[in-house]
Automatic annotation (TrEMBL):
CDD domains documented for this protein: IscU_like (cd06664)
Domain NIF system FeS cluster assembly NifU N-terminal: 10-127
Species name: Enterococcus lemanii
A Pfam family that the UniProt record links to this protein: NifU_N
InterPro entries cross-referenced by the UniProt entry: NIF_FeS_clus_asmbl_NifU_N
Protein name per the record: Fe-S cluster assembly sulfur transfer protein SufU
Length: 153
Protein backbone atom coordinates (compact mmCIF):
# COMPACT_ATOMS: atom_id res chain seq x y z
CA UNK A 1 0.00 0.00 0.00
CA UNK A 2 2.85 2.42 0.79
CA UNK A 3 4.31 2.04 -2.68
CA UNK A 4 0.93 2.85 -4.17
CA UNK A 5 0.78 6.09 -2.16
CA UNK A 6 4.30 6.99 -3.24
CA UNK A 7 3.36 6.37 -6.89
CA UNK A 8 0.31 8.60 -6.41
CA UNK A 9 2.51 11.35 -4.96
CA UNK A 10 4.91 11.09 -7.91
CA UNK A 11 2.03 11.24 -10.37
CA UNK A 12 0.57 14.26 -8.60
CA UNK A 13 3.89 16.15 -8.70
CA UNK A 14 4.28 15.33 -12.40
CA UNK A 15 0.74 16.47 -13.14
CA UNK A 16 1.29 19.67 -11.17
CA UNK A 17 4.45 20.50 -13.15
CA UNK A 18 2.58 19.73 -16.37
CA UNK A 19 -0.47 21.83 -15.50
CA UNK A 20 1.44 24.68 -13.83
CA UNK A 21 4.94 24.59 -15.32
CA UNK A 22 7.69 26.61 -13.68
CA UNK A 23 9.76 29.03 -15.78
CA UNK A 24 7.36 28.68 -18.70
CA UNK A 25 7.51 31.45 -21.30
CA UNK A 26 10.21 33.45 -22.99
CA UNK A 27 13.20 35.47 -21.82
CA UNK A 28 13.45 38.97 -23.27
CA UNK A 29 17.20 39.04 -22.68
CA UNK A 30 18.26 35.45 -23.38
CA UNK A 31 21.83 34.81 -24.44
CA UNK A 32 21.05 31.40 -26.00
CA UNK A 33 17.94 29.82 -27.49
CA UNK A 34 17.52 26.23 -28.68
CA UNK A 35 14.45 24.70 -30.29
CA UNK A 36 14.12 20.93 -30.63
CA UNK A 37 11.36 18.99 -32.34
CA UNK A 38 10.60 15.32 -31.80
CA UNK A 39 8.95 14.24 -35.08
CA UNK A 40 7.89 10.90 -33.59
CA UNK A 41 5.32 12.45 -31.27
CA UNK A 42 5.22 16.09 -32.35
CA UNK A 43 6.65 17.57 -29.14
CA UNK A 44 8.44 20.88 -29.63
CA UNK A 45 10.42 22.66 -26.93
CA UNK A 46 12.36 25.91 -26.95
CA UNK A 47 14.78 26.50 -24.09
CA UNK A 48 16.21 29.95 -23.51
CA UNK A 49 18.91 30.84 -21.02
CA UNK A 50 20.59 33.94 -19.76
CA UNK A 51 24.20 33.10 -18.99
CA UNK A 52 26.58 35.19 -16.95
CA UNK A 53 30.11 33.90 -16.41
CA UNK A 54 28.97 30.38 -17.38
CA UNK A 55 26.22 30.44 -14.76
CA UNK A 56 22.58 29.92 -15.74
CA UNK A 57 21.25 33.17 -14.34
CA UNK A 58 17.78 32.66 -15.79
CA UNK A 59 16.02 30.00 -17.86
CA UNK A 60 12.65 29.54 -19.53
CA UNK A 61 11.00 27.09 -21.86
CA UNK A 62 8.10 27.21 -24.28
CA UNK A 63 6.55 24.96 -26.88
CA UNK A 64 4.01 22.20 -26.83
CA UNK A 65 4.18 18.59 -25.85
CA UNK A 66 2.75 15.82 -23.74
CA UNK A 67 2.49 16.00 -19.97
CA UNK A 68 5.80 14.16 -19.48
CA UNK A 69 7.64 16.55 -21.81
CA UNK A 70 6.18 19.64 -20.15
CA UNK A 71 6.70 18.36 -16.60
CA UNK A 72 10.27 17.37 -17.35
CA UNK A 73 11.05 20.80 -18.85
CA UNK A 74 9.58 22.47 -15.75
CA UNK A 75 11.58 20.22 -13.44
CA UNK A 76 14.75 20.80 -15.48
CA UNK A 77 14.47 24.57 -15.19
CA UNK A 78 14.09 24.32 -11.41
CA UNK A 79 17.09 22.02 -11.12
CA UNK A 80 19.56 24.03 -13.23
CA UNK A 81 18.79 27.68 -12.52
CA UNK A 82 21.75 29.21 -10.69
CA UNK A 83 24.05 26.34 -11.69
CA UNK A 84 27.22 26.55 -13.76
CA UNK A 85 27.20 24.97 -17.22
CA UNK A 86 29.39 22.17 -15.86
CA UNK A 87 26.96 21.48 -13.01
CA UNK A 88 24.01 21.57 -15.42
CA UNK A 89 25.81 19.11 -17.68
CA UNK A 90 26.26 16.71 -14.77
CA UNK A 91 22.57 17.01 -13.91
CA UNK A 92 21.61 16.34 -17.52
CA UNK A 93 23.74 13.20 -17.60
CA UNK A 94 22.26 12.08 -14.29
CA UNK A 95 18.73 12.62 -15.62
CA UNK A 96 19.50 10.65 -18.77
CA UNK A 97 20.79 7.75 -16.68
CA UNK A 98 17.72 7.95 -14.43
CA UNK A 99 15.14 7.71 -17.22
CA UNK A 100 17.08 4.87 -18.83
CA UNK A 101 16.59 2.86 -15.65
CA UNK A 102 20.13 3.05 -14.29
CA UNK A 103 20.55 2.92 -10.53
CA UNK A 104 21.52 6.49 -9.58
CA UNK A 105 21.21 8.86 -6.65
CA UNK A 106 18.87 11.39 -8.23
CA UNK A 107 18.51 13.68 -5.21
CA UNK A 108 20.24 16.56 -7.04
CA UNK A 109 17.52 16.46 -9.71
CA UNK A 110 14.95 17.68 -7.16
CA UNK A 111 11.43 16.90 -8.52
CA UNK A 112 13.04 15.49 -11.67
CA UNK A 113 13.86 12.37 -9.68
CA UNK A 114 10.16 11.56 -9.78
CA UNK A 115 10.41 10.79 -13.50
CA UNK A 116 12.33 7.58 -12.82
CA UNK A 117 9.22 5.59 -13.82
CA UNK A 118 9.66 6.75 -17.41
CA UNK A 119 12.26 3.98 -17.73
CA UNK A 120 9.37 1.50 -17.81
CA UNK A 121 8.03 3.16 -20.97
CA UNK A 122 10.86 3.42 -23.54
CA UNK A 123 8.68 5.36 -25.98
CA UNK A 124 8.37 8.16 -23.40
CA UNK A 125 12.10 8.58 -22.76
CA UNK A 126 12.41 11.02 -25.67
CA UNK A 127 9.52 13.02 -24.23
CA UNK A 128 11.22 13.25 -20.87
CA UNK A 129 14.65 14.13 -22.27
CA UNK A 130 13.66 16.67 -24.95
CA UNK A 131 14.20 19.81 -22.84
CA UNK A 132 17.35 18.32 -21.34
CA UNK A 133 18.73 17.71 -24.86
CA UNK A 134 18.02 21.36 -25.67
CA UNK A 135 19.99 22.33 -22.57
CA UNK A 136 22.79 20.00 -23.69
CA UNK A 137 23.01 21.95 -26.97
CA UNK A 138 23.37 25.20 -25.04
CA UNK A 139 26.07 23.67 -22.86
CA UNK A 140 27.94 22.21 -25.84
CA UNK A 141 27.73 25.44 -27.87
CA UNK A 142 27.57 28.38 -25.43
CA UNK A 143 28.65 30.82 -28.17
CA UNK A 144 25.77 29.93 -30.52
CA UNK A 145 22.91 32.41 -30.06
CA UNK A 146 20.15 30.32 -31.72
CA UNK A 147 19.92 26.66 -32.70
CA UNK A 148 17.07 24.60 -34.13
CA UNK A 149 16.98 20.85 -34.78
CA UNK A 150 14.70 17.93 -35.41
CA UNK A 151 15.92 15.06 -33.26
CA UNK A 152 16.43 11.70 -34.88
CA UNK A 153 15.27 8.30 -33.72
Amino acid sequence: MALSRLDQLYRQVILDHSSHPHHHGNLADSSQKVELHNPTCGDVVTVEVKLKDEIIEDIAFSGHGCSISTASASMMTDAVIGKTLAEASQLSELFSDLVQGKDVDATALEDGAMLSGVAKFPARIKCATLAWKALDQIIAHPDVKEYKEEIEE
